[in-house]
Design goal:
about 140 residues; alpha+beta; two-stranded antiparallel sheet; 3 helices
Length: about 140
């Protein structure tokens, strides 16, 4: 039985965990630290920071349907996904301090999917903090 669900992984994950989800038929997208990528094929954070805004570097493995992406926006963000690739690339507006106006920046599809589903994770965290139930029992004193 194949399940087609998509998880938004808000914690920093590893590739092994995402591969395990792939074999279970669960799609996922999440941030990943560059030091958790074995033999990292992507450009370093320093190299991407020197490039203009909107620059990205990605590697895909078609056999296991896994895409790793580093994208330079305000800072460099690294994502891994087994759900989608980088295409279609769309143009988004970002404010540039140097030009003092909005500029168009290319944004891969992984970023769009990640940003679209992050609100649910934030809402879940908010509900947990507001309505947390006490897990410790009451002390009962017997006379």
């Amino acid at each position: 039985m194949l399940r087609f669900r998509h998880l938004e992984l808000w914690s920093r994950i590893g590739i092994a965990y995402l591969l395990h989800l792939s074999y279970e038929g669960i799609r996922g997208t999440g941030t990943i630290p560059l030091n958790r990528i074995p033999s990292n094929p992507l450009k370093s954070t320093g190299e991407l920071k020197k490039c203009p805004r909107g620059t990205y570097d990605h590697k895909s493995d078609i056999g296991i349907k896994l895409t790793i992406l580093s994208w330079n926006d305000n800072s460099v963000v690294s994502l891994v996904s087994n759900a989608v690739g980088i295409n279609p690339i769309r143009m988004v507006k970002r404010y540039s301090k140097q030009e003092k106006k909005s500029v168009s920046v290319p944004q891969p599809h992984i970023i769009k999917l990640y940003n679209a589903n992050m609100g649910g994770v934030d809402r879940s965290d908010q509900n947990l903090s507001l309505y947390r139930t006490g897990i410790r029992g009451k002390k009962l004193y017997f006379c």
